[in-house]
Specification:
Blueprint lengths: L10 E8 L5 E8 L5 E7 L6 E3 L5 E3 L2 H11 L7 H16 L5 E3 H15 L1 H11 L5 H18 L1
Parallel strand pairs: 4-6
Antiparallel strand pairs: 1-2, 2-3, 4-5
């Protein structure tokens, strides 16, 4: 870190503490050359996640859109709104941890389905029916059979 007063590149940290909102670290530093003190803030670098849609268009990731889809899938199921918000947080974190700036809508859908398969089978089938655009009863039955086979192999 260069001293803002003399430009010297060596300093020492005198005090370090989180900011009030907890989203940054505040550091008091002292220049090794001029002994003047200054404050720096350290934050996690974040970048907006961009979703590549099936038609090739791009749009910013919208957690509300995902939450609304999950609300429909979990309608009349034994889960709270907070449970679904935590699920969206997990999915968003998982997508951000790939360190890719762009993800496909397919990646998002598959990530959601992987989480739902273990949480609630009814919500899984509901979400899959919309996401995979089941066109007929055979497609629907094929997905149900996959779910049953996976359940039997776990037991």
């Amino acid at each position: 870190m260069k001293c803002p007063y003399c430009g010297y590149e060596d300093d020492r940290v005198i005090d370090s503490r989180p900011t009030d909102d907890g989203n940054a670290i505040r550091r008091r530093r002292e220049c090794a050359n001029c002994q003047r003190r200054y404050t720096t803030y350290e934050k996690v670098e974040s970048f907006p996640l961009v979703v590549i849609k099936k038609d090739g268009s791009r749009q910013p990731f919208n957690r509300e859109k995902l939450l609304n889809g999950l609300l429909r899938a979990f309608e009349k199921r034994p889960f709270s709104y907070n449970d679904l918000e935590k699920l969206v947080d997990q999915i968003e974190m998982e997508l951000c941890n790939t360190l890719q700036k762009e993800v496909t809508s397919r990646q998002i859908g598959e990530t959601v389905l992987a989480k739902l398969k273990d949480m609630d089978e009814v919500a899984y089938v509901r979400f899959a029916s919309v996401y995979r655009q089941f066109n007929d009863i055979n497609t629907f039955m094929t997905e149900l059979q996959k779910l049953l086979d996976a359940k039997q192999s776990r037991e």
